[in-house]
Amino acid sequence: xxxxxxxxxxxxxxxxxxxxxxxxxxxxxxxxxxxxxxxxxxxxxxxxxxxxxxxxxxxxxxxxxxxxxxxxxxxxxxxxxxxxxxxxxxxxxxxxxxxxxxxxxxxxxxxxxxxxxxxxxxxxxxxxxxxxxxxxxxxxxxxxxxxxxxxxxxxxxxxxxxxxxxxxxxxxxxxxxxxxxxxxxxxxxxxxxxxxxxxxxxxxxxxxxxxxxxxxxxxxxxxxxxxxxxxxxxxxxxxxxxxxxxxxxxxxxxxxxxxxxxxxxxxxxxxxxxxxxxxxxxxxxxxxxxx
Length: 291
Known about the structure:
With 291 residues, the chain is of the alpha/beta class. It contains nine helices and ten strands. It is elongated, with a radius of gyration of 27 Å.
């Protein structure tokens, strides 16, 4: 087995690296617990024990492995739990806090989150190949931080999605609910009707569901972004659901079906799709060895 330990400040590109490798490797993410040393070490031990029965050839450890001390802890326990014949590769991104802050700003602006200021203060040891030379099964590779940039006009489009989606729906007279839900036209799911002077009942036949959620498509058209068919289907499946309601009056009892689109969910998936698309354009220009 080979274990790759990613050694980099936040927003250096380590998670992008792990994502690009994901098809051929298992990626274990330690983000979110790394500010607590005890929890971090316990999680490392827990994952290493799981790997004793894993059939994966390559595993990536993605987290804040920032110091020689924590990486040494990982190496020592890999050798203890998995054996010293385990190949260990440390991939180190050279310290460039300015570029990391730039990447963090781009990544977080569409979620109204502040820049990750921990980038300015987190400890980050200056490691080299000689830092782990006593371990025969450890290799060390150094890489540069890559800036993932987005054209200004694309930032404006992304910001529009994040901040003004419900306003856009109102402007288009789609009348979203207080919870940010818009509905499609309805179709009959069947029921029964009767005359005003007779107890005889007649069936109301079901109709085929409508093929197009026009209101949903109208929002996407006004965002003015060139979505692929795959991206369109991803957005649609994430934020649209089937729904139904009963309709009663003096002469009928009928159920109607319709589609609902949650604009809050739509905002999330649009941000992901649009941001990822712009980042991928940058990634396509960069060889995986450079990341």
